[in-house]
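Review form for a predicted model. The reviewer records the input and the model, then writes brief findings.
Reviewer: anonymous (R2)
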Amino acid sequence: MRLLVVCLFIFSGLGCSVMPQQSALTLLQANQLWVIKGELLNWQTVFKQPVSFDVRWTIDTDGQMQDLQLSNIEPKVAVSDEQLNAIKQTQFMPTKNNVDRKSIVVATQVQLL
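Model under review:
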């Protein structure tokens, strides 16, 4: 089940854009700029029940997650500050292709079954 969740997250159409131009990047391009530092976020530890939602955030020049937005949450459940803070703990490190530490916007859909 954990592998399914990770695969859904990784392959669910991750869309990105570079700031400030806002030009769209492919998944391959985004992975060439930033990679997750440490462990991959296990969304099932944050959301205990099956849920799907759209999520969008900015990776700033320090590799920190900023401007986290969750929308279209189904079933409609309230997201606590504790849950948001758990997600925001995710950190990123630049790849060798991102020496300028370009900030990007990431948008994807998460589906927990």
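Findings: Residues 1-21 have pLDDT under 50 and may be disordered.
Further findings: The two ends are 8 Å apart (CA to CA).
Recommendation: see findings above.
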